[in-house]
Amino acid sequence: MILVTGGAGFIGANFVLGWLAHSDEAIINLDKLTYAGNRENLCSLGNDPRHVFVHGDINDLPLISGLLARYQPRAVVHFAAESHVDRSLHGPEDFVQTNIVGTFRLLEAARGYWQHLPAEAARRFRFLHVSTDEVYGSLAPDEAAFDENHRYRPNSPYSASKAASDHLVRAYHQSYGLPVLTSNCSNNYGPYQFPEKLIPLMIVNALAGKPLPVYGDGRQIRDWLYVEDHCAAIRRILEAGDPGETYNVGGWNEKPNLEIVHTLCALLDELCPRSDGKPYSEQITRVADRPGHDRRYAIDARKIARQLGWRPAETFATGIRKTVLWYLDNPDWISDVLSGAYRDWVDKNYGERDR
Ligand code: NAD
Ligand code: TYD
Questions:
Q1: Is the dihedral of CA 37, 42, 43, 46 positive or negative?
Q2: Which residues of 137-168 are buried (b: 16+ CB within 10 A; e: fewer)?
Q3: Which helix or strand (DSSP H or E) is residue 176 part of?
Q4: Where are the extended beta strands (E) located within 177-301?
Q5: Is residue 270 part of a domain?
Q6: If you count Cβ atoms within 10 Å of the first and of the last residue's Cβ in the chain, which end, N or C, has fewer?
Q7: Counting atoms of ligand 2 from 1, which one is nearest the CA of 349?
Q8: Does the residue 204 lie in any domain?
Q9: 129: closest CA among 4, 224, 13, 223?
Q10: pLDDT attached to residue 354
């Protein structure tokens, strides 16, 4: 079996569901169930015996060591993190605690477990660290896309904490020989994404008749990848990646934020028109920019294509349509996550922004 951390979050849940659809190998899913973790994301599994859910924190070293000793997984796939840049600006401490200290504790537990495995099991063991392209910082419009050798220059507490975790993972390979793999992926979108991130926030706000808050001039560029393509890349890296290597994962799909929002509005106009017949784009509102806002991310995903044969299966047009349809088909999921705590966050992040 494999141990997954953060498997009740957006990408982790998609990974768990995809894994169990592709294989019979069981998963232990360790998740703290922060605001971003949601057991409903996994409800389609029912009581599937291949899925063991453990409510716990990656900072809890005895808990993790106990899980490793008990279940003897052949791999750890590490998704658990605080993942939202805007929240990291309001409260960076949780990011340091989970992304840096938590990753360190997980590495320590994995090292202790791996060192005592029989030789063949130790040789086959993998620790796969799921990271982000944001560690590389911001690109100028004419700069080449990030490759695996791009210098690290993180700009937000989120990206700095992920960069620190990447360095720890690397160091555990260099210093102790732990067979680690790191993936640095671009912005994901798809089912189960919490509506604090751009795409689900715009869909949820549009349907609720609320403003669609575009930060600054809306010309910041992100490289978007459908979440199932990311999960397929992780499965491939786990299967065939070389220990100690990092792999950049991206969709070859750079788009300015404003274009994303207009695309979503057009899809909603088609699939769920406003009752007054007006276009959703009328709800677009410019708001004050995010401090330190990175202008552009772009991933050069040639290494993973060349060495592991992975390429995205979805285009942006197919992936974004599936995503909008998923949110339209799941109003109960949306209403469940729009809790009081979510409303407090919206007030904090958007309430004080100047229009
Ligand atoms: P998410 O915020 O949706 O989910 C994070 C999950 O981790 C939640 O289920 C949460 O409960 C859990 N968690 C948080 N702190 C924990 C702790 N201390 N112990 C145990 N569980 C804890 O995040 P996501 O978007 O699914 O991202 C998953 C990973 O992928 C993160 O490491 C993130 O940095 C990385 N990543 C995300 C994107 C993206 O676009 N979302 C892109 C590239 C990389
Ligand atoms: P986000 O989904 O938070 O991902 P990240 O900051 O990790 O790239 O934001 C994606 C882009 O959308 C980013 O440039 C910020 C912008 N954005 C808005 O313009 N308005 C919003 O309300 C949000 C949440 C994001």
A1: negative
A2: bbbeeeeebbeeebeeebbbbbbbbbbbbbeb
A3: helix 157-176
A4: 180-185, 187-189, 212-215, 221-226, 246-249, 254-256, 284-287
A5: no
A6: C
A7: 22
A8: no
A9: 4
A10: 65
Choice from 197, 258, 263 to test ligand 2 binding pocket (greatest atom count within 8 A of CB)? 197
How many domains, the chain? Answer: 1
- With 0.70 as the threshold, say if the pTM is over it: yes
Domain range for 54 = 2-192+225-253+296-314
Supply the pLDDT for residue 339. 87
Q: Would you say 88 and 65 are in contact if contact means Cβ atoms under 8 Å apart?
A: no
Q: Distance from the CA of 270 to the center of ligand 1, in angstroms?
A: 32
Q: Whose CA is nearest to atom 14 of ligand 2?
A: 220
Domain CATH for 68: 3.40.50.720
Q: Are 287 and 213 in contact (CB under 8 A)?
A: yes
Residues with active-site annotation:
133-134, 158
Cα 157 from Cα 264, distance rounded (Å): 29
Alpha-carbon span 289 to 135, nearest angstrom: 20
How does pLDDT run across 181-227, given as a tens digit for each residue? 999 999 999 999 999 999 999 999 999 999 999 999 999 999 999 99
DSSP code for 101: I
CB of 51 within 8 A of CB of 20? yes
User: Encoding tokens for residue 33?
Assistant: 């169930």
With respect to residue 203, please indicate whether it lies within any of the assigned structural domains. Answer: no
